[in-house]
Amino acid sequence: MQLALSAHAQQSAACNAYIRSKCVCRACCCARDLCDSEGLPLTQEFLAQMIGARRNAVSIVAHAFRQAGIVNYGRGHIEITDIDGLPKTSCECYWAIQRQCDRLLPARA
Hints:
Strand order of the largest sheet: 1-3-2
CATH topology: Arc Repressor Mutant, subunit A
Low-confidence stretches: none
Shape: globular
Strand content: 5-15%
CATH architecture: Orthogonal Bundle
Order of helices and strands: HHEHHEEHH
Helix content: 55-70%
Mean pLDDT: 82
Protein backbone atom coordinates (compact mmCIF):
# COMPACT_ATOMS: atom_id res chain seq x y z
CA MET A 1 0.00 0.00 0.00
CA GLN A 2 2.81 2.41 0.87
CA LEU A 3 4.48 1.82 -2.50
CA ALA A 4 1.19 2.42 -4.33
CA LEU A 5 0.67 5.72 -2.51
CA SER A 6 4.23 6.76 -3.23
CA ALA A 7 3.87 5.90 -6.93
CA HIS A 8 0.60 7.83 -7.06
CA ALA A 9 2.15 10.90 -5.43
CA GLN A 10 5.16 10.85 -7.74
CA GLN A 11 3.05 10.48 -10.87
CA SER A 12 0.67 13.21 -9.71
CA ALA A 13 3.52 15.61 -9.01
CA ALA A 14 4.89 15.06 -12.50
CA CYS A 15 1.44 15.48 -14.02
CA ASN A 16 0.68 18.76 -12.26
CA ALA A 17 3.20 20.53 -14.48
CA TYR A 18 1.19 19.29 -17.47
CA ILE A 19 -1.89 20.66 -19.24
CA ARG A 20 -4.39 21.82 -16.61
CA SER A 21 -7.49 20.30 -18.22
CA LYS A 22 -5.86 16.89 -18.28
CA CYS A 23 -4.78 17.31 -14.64
CA VAL A 24 -8.35 18.13 -13.61
CA CYS A 25 -9.51 14.98 -15.41
CA ARG A 26 -6.86 12.88 -13.70
CA ALA A 27 -7.76 14.27 -10.29
CA CYS A 28 -11.48 13.62 -10.86
CA CYS A 29 -10.82 10.09 -12.16
CA CYS A 30 -8.64 9.27 -9.15
CA ALA A 31 -11.22 10.75 -6.76
CA ARG A 32 -13.93 8.69 -8.46
CA ASP A 33 -11.83 5.55 -8.01
CA LEU A 34 -11.28 6.31 -4.32
CA CYS A 35 -14.92 7.24 -3.63
CA ASP A 36 -16.31 4.52 -5.91
CA SER A 37 -18.99 7.01 -6.91
CA GLU A 38 -19.76 9.40 -9.76
CA GLY A 39 -20.72 12.04 -7.20
CA LEU A 40 -17.62 13.65 -5.75
CA PRO A 41 -17.69 15.87 -2.66
CA LEU A 42 -15.07 18.23 -4.11
CA THR A 43 -14.94 21.97 -4.51
CA GLN A 44 -13.17 23.66 -7.38
CA GLU A 45 -10.89 25.25 -4.79
CA PHE A 46 -9.87 21.83 -3.47
CA LEU A 47 -9.30 20.53 -7.02
CA ALA A 48 -7.10 23.56 -7.66
CA GLN A 49 -5.06 22.74 -4.56
CA MET A 50 -4.79 19.09 -5.65
CA ILE A 51 -3.22 20.02 -8.98
CA GLY A 52 -1.35 23.15 -7.92
CA ALA A 53 -3.40 25.56 -10.02
CA ARG A 54 -5.40 28.69 -9.40
CA ARG A 55 -9.10 28.21 -8.74
CA ASN A 56 -10.15 30.25 -11.76
CA ALA A 57 -8.16 27.90 -14.03
CA VAL A 58 -10.12 24.95 -12.64
CA SER A 59 -13.35 26.90 -13.02
CA ILE A 60 -12.65 27.47 -16.73
CA VAL A 61 -11.86 23.79 -17.25
CA ALA A 62 -14.95 22.70 -15.27
CA HIS A 63 -17.14 24.98 -17.36
CA ALA A 64 -15.75 23.50 -20.59
CA PHE A 65 -16.34 19.98 -19.25
CA ARG A 66 -19.90 20.91 -18.29
CA GLN A 67 -20.50 22.25 -21.81
CA ALA A 68 -19.12 18.98 -23.24
CA GLY A 69 -21.45 16.94 -21.00
CA ILE A 70 -18.60 15.29 -19.08
CA VAL A 71 -19.40 16.69 -15.63
CA ASN A 72 -21.99 18.70 -13.82
CA TYR A 73 -21.19 20.63 -10.69
CA GLY A 74 -22.68 22.65 -7.91
CA ARG A 75 -21.41 24.08 -4.68
CA GLY A 76 -19.01 21.53 -3.18
CA HIS A 77 -20.08 18.71 -5.48
CA ILE A 78 -18.96 17.40 -8.86
CA GLU A 79 -21.04 14.82 -10.68
CA ILE A 80 -19.37 12.81 -13.43
CA THR A 81 -21.99 12.49 -16.16
CA ASP A 82 -19.84 10.83 -18.83
CA ILE A 83 -18.17 7.90 -17.06
CA ASP A 84 -16.33 6.76 -20.19
CA GLY A 85 -15.49 10.24 -21.48
CA LEU A 86 -13.69 11.56 -18.42
CA PRO A 87 -10.87 8.97 -18.40
CA LYS A 88 -10.49 9.38 -22.19
CA THR A 89 -9.95 13.11 -21.65
CA SER A 90 -7.38 12.47 -18.91
CA CYS A 91 -3.65 12.42 -19.43
CA GLU A 92 -1.55 9.28 -19.58
CA CYS A 93 -0.72 9.80 -15.89
CA TYR A 94 -4.11 8.43 -14.85
CA TRP A 95 -3.45 5.20 -16.73
CA ALA A 96 0.09 4.98 -15.33
CA ILE A 97 -1.33 5.31 -11.81
CA GLN A 98 -3.88 2.59 -12.56
CA ARG A 99 -1.18 0.22 -13.84
CA GLN A 100 0.99 0.85 -10.76
CA CYS A 101 -1.94 0.26 -8.39
CA ASP A 102 -2.92 -2.93 -10.23
CA ARG A 103 0.68 -4.15 -10.00
CA LEU A 104 1.24 -3.16 -6.36
CA LEU A 105 -2.25 -3.95 -5.05
CA PRO A 106 -3.21 -7.24 -6.74
CA ALA A 107 -6.48 -7.48 -4.78
CA ARG A 108 -7.71 -4.48 -6.83
CA ALA A 109 -7.33 -6.24 -10.16
